[in-house]
Amino acid sequence: MGPSVPCVSRSSDDIPSSRTWRRDTTPVMTTSKPVRDSGRPLEALIDIAALRRNYDILNARGGSAVCVAVVKSDGYGHGLQGVVEALPAARQFALATANELDRLRPETLSGRSVLILEGLFDLGEPERVSRLGFAVEWVIHSHWQLDMLESADMRSTVPIRVWVKINTGMNRLGFKPADILPVFRRLGQLKSSVLLLGIASHLACADTPEAVLNRQQFDCFDQTYDRLVRAGLDRICEEGRLRRSLLNSAGLLQFPERAHDQVRPGIAMYGALDSTLHQAHGLTPVMTLQTKLIAIQHVRAGDRVGYGGDYVATSDQCIGIVAAGYGDGYPRQVSTRGEVGGQPPYVLVDGEPCALVGRCSMDMLTVDLGSSATCRFSAGDHVELWGQRLPVDLVASWASTISYHLLTGVTQRVPRRYIDHIHKVNQGADEC
Ligand SMILES: Cc1ncc(COP(=O)(O)O)c(C=O)c1O
Hints:
Bound molecules: pyridoxal-5'-phosphate
Helix content: 10-25%
Largest sheet: 8 strands, mixed
Strand content: 15-25%
CATH class of the largest domain: Alpha Beta
CATH superfamily of the largest domain: Alanine racemase
């Protein structure tokens, strides 16, 4: 049986061509068209087929390495439960902390495991998650965690499966390479509770392949591995083998030869790392944040728009009122920064770029729909804020931030709607 998909649209026009959303192309003189059948029109459309395809591409790129699907921070804003259900091919998922497991139904994983990237925070965690029915591996990065494991030895009733994180140069988490032999020896003493799996590290500059730090981190990782093997400490690991885990999305795309035993892509799985790089690898966006025009204002030259009256109309023009604001996770800075690279930030109205004007407010954006004389838009028209046709990394660059920030920042009041063009499970379900 296929996976249970959280909510699957019934129709085949799930990612609507903006034409199909548009009901009328006559110049706007009225706002009486229905904007939505029920509820506010803003939604995050999650393309499960794209997610699966992206995962398969990344999995293939890692060769025989286990491809861990990184789903922390609520599946990078796509909805943890929905993302996990959509990926039956993934053998392992990664979260930042064990608390994030509370948002996941254990039966969804059915025999698959979860890697906890920040590791243990307290000794009750392994037993708690095991009681809930989760199979977990923990990344141990600091001496305080090691001390905690020693204090639990003999008492733990569940084996604690452990990856040891090495600080190879990012200087965020991880043991110093110089400390690695004593750390392994101490863990090796904890035979009753700890099962050692391997070493992990994280690249600071994977998205800049020419950065010197990449080479330094590779060398450091290799030397640490060699030192452990020379000391015979691979033999105290599970199956007498010291596993290695190093690459995130950018690392896997740029340095696949470093895949080793496990890779950990997150952002590329969501099709949101870098649109140019993605095109080269066939990765496509998973989330489309879409809404509609809910009103149109006809303003005169000299009229002001929005809070502070920042925008002053230069001629008679139509202003579109878009149902989305910073309260939904749209970055307010985009509307206050002005032009970026000679181009004003925009949204796609009925597929057409329309510049943001005035300040972004909590629930609404205002956009320039052009001259009142020729405006062809009407309330109810489809608006894409980012997604299939407007890359989220471009919108992020307008806000001087990164796509991760925008995706994880989509707030809980925005419904996620899961669509699947391949596996039409749950034919009866329509919208979430
Ligand atoms: C340790 C670790 N591995 C993997 C990832 C996934 O990174 P990305 O989303 O860039 O692929 C992250 C993300 O922050 C991480 O912290």
